[in-house]
Amino acid sequence: MAKFQIAFYRAAEKAGISPEQAQELVQLAEDFIVRKIEEANKNLVAELQSQRWVLGWIALLTTLSAGIAAYLATFHH
Q1: 28 φ, ψ to 5°?
Q2: What is the Cα gyration radius of the chain?
Q3: pTM higher than 0.70 for the full model?
Q4: Tens digits of per-residue pLDDT, 25-53?
Q5: 16-27 b/e with 16+ CB inside 10 Å = b?
Q6: How far apart are CA 14 and CA 6, in angstroms?
Q7: Residue 48 in 3-state DSSP?
Q8: What does the H/E/C string look like for 17-42?
Q9: C-alpha dihedral over 57, 62, 68, 71, to 10 degrees?
Q10: pLDDT of residue 51
Q11: CA–CA separation, 65 vs 44, rounded Å?
Q12: Which residues lie closer than 8 Å to 22 by C-beta, 6 or more apart?
């Protein structure tokens, strides 16, 4: 995002904004963008976490099924 920051800073200075205010403006814009990205990703992160739980349960059930099948094959000819 450095290119954006530099371009935004230069545009602010060119518009007559002081260097200190331009830096503040760049920081505010960057913070805003980060917040918006986090908000947009919030649902995706929640969905990925729930899918991780589902995959964990599937792995557990698969392991248990394989263990039971191996036990039955070994002791119940």
Answers
A1: -60, -45
A2: 27
A3: no
A4: 999 999 999 999 999 999 999 999 999 99
A5: eeeeeebeebbe
A6: 12
A7: helix
A8: CCHHHHHHHHHHHHHHHHHHHHHHHH
A9: -130
A10: 93
A11: 31
A12: 9, 12, 13
Token code pair at residue 26: 């760049």
CA angle, residues 66, 56, 69, in degrees to nearest 5? 5
Q: At 22, list the tokens.
A: 């331009």
Contact assessment for residue 9 and residue 23, using Cβ atoms and an 8 Å cutoff: yes
- Please answer whether residues 26 and 9 qualify as being in contact, where contact means their C-beta atoms are separated by less than 8 angstroms: yes
**Cα 58–chain centre separation:** 24
Could you give the maximum distance between any two Cα atoms of the chain, in Å?
A: 88
Is residue 19 within 8 Å of residue 13, measured between CB atoms? yes
The whole-number pLDDT of residue 1 equals 60
- Placement of tokens 């099948």 in the chain: 69
